[in-house]
Fold this sequence. Notes:
This protein is α+β, with helices and mostly antiparallel strands. The chain is built from 4 helices and 5 strands; from the N terminus they run βββαααββα. β2 and β3 (37-42) form a beta hairpin.
Amino acid sequence: MQENKLYEYAVIRLVPKVEREEFFNVGLILFSKKEKFIASRILLCEKKFALMKSELDYTEVLESLENFQRIAEGNPEAGPMAGFDLPERFRWLTALRSSVIQTSRPHPGKATDLRATFDRLFEELVR
């Protein structure tokens, strides 16, 4: 029997008007310190984005979300935060902030297969 691995995940949200606190889910980040695992994926639906009453530019938001993902992956092109170790990157990315890209509070879980769990959570919470 495979051992359950402890993980944390947070939903990445787009908050078009921060003052209204309305949002929709656009991605997921999952992290396991012991397993040295981090995964992030985004999905910004252009049709859904167009329905928002917002001054946001789709291309700029998409670029910011892609940079979020690059930081999670540790891609040096994403800037100095990408050089943080895994726990620091996850904590920085999921820190409470007032911006158009936010995350839910981190939620804990246990799973034997982190990649499969990430895929399942992404389908349930984002797609």
